[in-house]
Write a structure and sequence with these properties.
five-stranded antiparallel beta sheet; single chain; 295 residues; four-stranded antiparallel beta sheet; mainly beta; 7% helix; 2 helices
Length: 295
Amino acid sequence: MRTPMLFCGAGAVVAALFFACGSDEDSLFPDGDAASTSSSSSSGASGVPGFQTDGGSNGSGGPAQPATPVDVVFTTDNAYKFGWGTKDGLASMQGSPANPTGNEIFPCPVGQGPEAYVVPGDEAPLEGYLYVVAWDDHDNTQGALGQFKRRGSDKVVYTGDPAWEVCATGLVYDARDAGAQGPPLDIVNAEMAKCAAGTGDKTKTSGGWVNAQGAITPGAVGKLMIGEDNSEGIVDGGVFPITCQEDDAGLGIDPAARWMWYSSDGLPHFQNDPDPRSFLIFRLPNSAVPPPPVN
């Protein structure tokens, strides 16, 4: 259960230092889980190959289009891991601390509430995918909120964009468990194979990939639910408090971002979900996060 607390303060200096601690091509994931991380430039424990960075292909025989780093700010109610890979699986996944209370989900500065990440450009080609693996505490509220932007581009892509997809695995992890790390990489990729094949038990899982319109994988059940944006807040009748929009370092999640989760019956389940079917795997094609214009 979360305990909403909203504030911005001097802690933003820490977030600014964290976000600026490497070059544009550095991956700045907090609290990386080495046990569940494989190299994104070669096959790792997941068995999913990484991307070719020299002489790669765009899938049509031509050279791969260069991609710039992707800046990400993200949070979930309650816990998640962030990563990237191909449509077939994650090549790399990094752990985020479990967020059992609102003080670790919603407030400024970034780094205390939402987290900031940088996906290196050579690991974010346009044919790849960005992933969020999310689970909750099975109490009160649940949802995912964030934004993505390529360096040099003017377009920001938010949760709630039509390009998002989700698969509900039916495997239960509880964000209240002390030191909970959630599902490891091999389990996530095994469940992704079931998502693609549509072999999950449809009474316990989504039975494949779905988006806001419904099934993508033939026979999949449910849909990606899109909720309120990050401007409403509880005082205006919303389900969630307003999440940090801009801290002292200029980092945050814009008001246009919308909360999202999975629903098996088409009804909003952002509160007291009677059928969680989590953990959930969200994915966004990198092609939806456009590169900067060619000069």
